[in-house]
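I am still getting used to backbone structure tokens and would like to learn alongside you. To get us started, please write out a protein record for me. Start from the sequence, derive the backbone structure tokens from it, and show both lines together. Once you have written the record down, we can walk along the chain together:
***
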Amino acid sequence: MTSQAVKIGICGLGTVGSGTFKVLRRNAEAISARAQADIDIALVGARRDNPDCPLGDTPVSRDIFAVARDPQVQVLVELIGGTTVAKELVEEALANGKHVVTANKALIAEFGNELFALAEQHGVVIRYEAAVAGGIPIIKALREGLAGNRVEWLAGIINGTGNFILSEMRDKGRDFAEVLTEAQALGYAEADPTFDVEGIDAAHKLVILASLAFGMPLQFSSVYTEGIARVTPDDVEYAEELGYRIKHLGVAKQGDEGVELRVHPTLIPEARLLANVNGVKNAVLVEGDAVGPTLYYGAGAGAEPTASAVVADIVDLARELSAGQVCRVPALGFATARLKDLPVLPMEAVVTPWYLRMEAEDKPGVLSSITSIFSEHGISIEALIQKAPAAGETRVPLIMLTNAAAQGNMDEAVATIEALDSVSGEVARIRVEDLDG
């Protein structure tokens, strides 16, 4: 233990900020031992008090930028969220020579390239373990534990709200809207759930993981996102009948033609570990050329799980500061000059198997005409479920699994099928991933 404490400033006393404060105080002795230095919360920047987090005699400033300017603060912990004030705060902290720890995935995903460059310019570092998958140490795994591997692909359940909704739909046969309302009541989903259910939150996290895995600059604008609002209880039931489960996945793959960056509902074989991650839990599966598949599972959100990751970054920095040398590992695992400007594959060229559901006339020749259209586009049917019509109905649901096909070919085939008089409405489509590492 050094005689001189490492002084940090925490900005934000919301869910994660208060959780971080409590963990640092409750586990102070163990944290100090691991950091080889005492960690002193020198200043808290918060525009209002949190009655669930009494600060005792810790100094508080209502001006969060005072933390970035305070000469005694060595590490600024940004936990206010958003990408406007938070960005200005981090920029000021870096310009004042302070290291930064953040849990802000949107900030890193959208502005990380320029913030990392600014940190390098001022000789400081940004740590962001808590920005992806809460308490799961996936950033350290990719940047350090798997450093000897060429990462082939990764796939993750990286939004707990979406996973909770799909788990409830499967377990209890409920529809999306009903479960979303419950998720909001439980605090799993925001009043405006768009970021969660439309895949934006997962896209923020995926681009960070992909940049670490493949050594490429952050490219948030290139991530394809598709939400789960159109997944029906029937889709969940048919997927089970075919031996699959539906999960909202973030997928990143590196191929000869470029990198795939996509977030969408996905059928996964029910025997896969990832298919059995339920509720609000997160999990990330990474395939490395040397180690093979590795799975990282745990709490992806919440006050103390996320605080666990924040404190881990603080401990790393405190250990290095106490030793007099901060390890300036590049933020994305590669020196900026060595980052590869890899092209992102357009979705039309992405190849996967497909699950399809449509309503068709129950009469001879209809199925034959549909399969002929698929055949003309190089798509074959691997499995088929045809249900009997309900009493008084003349249309039946057709459920198909296809072989691997490029999205462009599938788009053309489905457009032709939807134009048939014998098919009503839109054809539901969900991609399929085997995830067999």
Q: What stands out?
A: The domain at 139-299 is CATH 3.30.360.10 (Dihydrodipicolinate Reductase; domain 2). The first helix runs from residue 15 to 26.
